[in-house]
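Bug #77: duplicate submission created two jobs. Keeping one. Sequence:
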Amino acid sequence: MKKEVLMAIVLLALGTVALPAAHAQAKTDQKATFAAVFDHTLTGVENEFVPAAEAMPDDKFNFAPTQGDFKGVRTFAQQVKHVAAVNYMMGGAILGEKPPVELGGESGPDNIASKADVVKFLKDSFAYLHKALNTIDEKNVLEKMQSPFGPNKITRLGLTMIALGHPFDHYGQMVEYLRMNNIVPPASRGQ
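Kept job's structure:
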């Protein structure tokens, strides 16, 4: 498959969030790279997710709905820790290494419990995932790596697509939790 065709597929798959990175690079006459597009997209994800995590007050950080059919759902803090743990897992898989912190599974370490510690864990996970995405190039993007979720192999591109989309599964739940506590999510303020 030619590089141009592969790049077009990746840009279409990433959607409009990735297009500004390619456009910005074209303006500066620099060659668009996988790493630059992925890193830019992750920054967009991070800029939505981290402020939402920070918006929940300390005394409500462990909030989970109790009315209706919400039995067994993750708390707000557990949503954040889960995304952070998966960020580390995906980054480690992309790099072909063990993550630099002991995760205790996809729920994150038990010893990280306070809002300050959870938010720090989250920010550190995004930094690690940025590091991983910045290693991706046209030579290794389709190389198969060990999946962090089982015995299967998956390409770095596949891992990246999961890593970029996964936080938004939980962001939607976090927005609902914020609104249940009369907090307007940062991304919705002033609009």
